[in-house]
Amino acid sequence: MAAGMGGTSMASAPGTAGVESPPAGATVELAGPGADDRVVVRAEAMRVWTAEGTMILRDLSWTVRAGEHWALLGPNGSGKSTLLSLLATVRHPSAGTISVLGGALGRANLWRLRERIGIVDPAVRMPPELPAIVLVLTGASNTVQPLWPRYGPADWERAGHLLGLLGCAGLRDRTIASCSQGERQRVRIARALMAEPPLLLLDEPANALDLPAREALLAALADLAASRPDLTTVLVSHHLEELPTSTTHALLLREGASVASGPAGEVLTGERVSACFGLPVRVERRDGRWSAYAAPDWRRPGSLSPSSVPNDTPSSPVPGPGGPPATGTTR
Length: 331
Ligand SMILES: Nc1ncnc2c1ncn2[C@@H]1O[C@H](COP(=O)(O)OP(=O)(O)O)[C@@H](O)[C@H]1O
Ligand SMILES: [Mg+2]
Fold this sequence. Notes:
six-stranded mixed sheet
């Protein structure tokens, strides 16, 4: 389930209690003049721990560039939502650095920075009585209820266009109450895009959707990527089946550490996904989509060994949490 990253509820995002405020030296900051303007996110040796000292993210170094579509994968509790809340700037690293949409804004302007980050968060309330088109419009004011004076004809037009882009043109005048779970999720994405954010964050967007709704959502995300080449997305999931065909990169997390990071085709292998989830799995790719399932002999003692892990890549030692990254592409 999503950890409540934000939208209008960002300032009081659930799940932030107990996390230390940033010590000196841990920053969310501007990248500075001359920075690579294609860099959307850069984390360096970033760590997050709780006030009780529990490590949630360990030594994470990661770079996301404009137009990339990242999948953030890992078992429950591996730190995916925590990492997403750092990207949403609602949480700070305990050590190390992270810049988000760097070069534009510093810490003093976090609110301005947040306006440029689209967040698809099921924790943000959707008033059931609002028509879908109005719910999308509220994304322009980043409010739960509509702020009518803020919306001009161009906003209405854009809201209608976004509903169409997400395959929801027919929902325009339907109330949120009458929309299915899957329809609501696509309306949520349209809302998050209203402010034209260069970065879109999605935490388990296909969670609890049935098969047709999931497929409609993934098709909409692929269409979105095709129509907005500069849009950067980071999508959290724990199922490879929930990755849209537009996925370009993947970061595998286990116990807060990166197991592998880089182009999806190099990272989403049986060996690496097995190391990430602690279970020998086979990974398949067909028609641009991914799937994973347990190897037939996975219950045999010692089955998670390099030799028995399904071998769709050249064999190399399977790193454990905190071990060396499986690819040389962790950046
Ligand atoms: N505010 C917090 N205080 C204490 N522990 C937390 C807090 N937020 C997350 N955690 C812990 O950090 C780990 C990672 O959580 P999370 O990022 O939500 O994982 P994921 O999204 O991968 O399931 C979990 O063990 C969780 O219990
Ligand atoms: Mg989560």
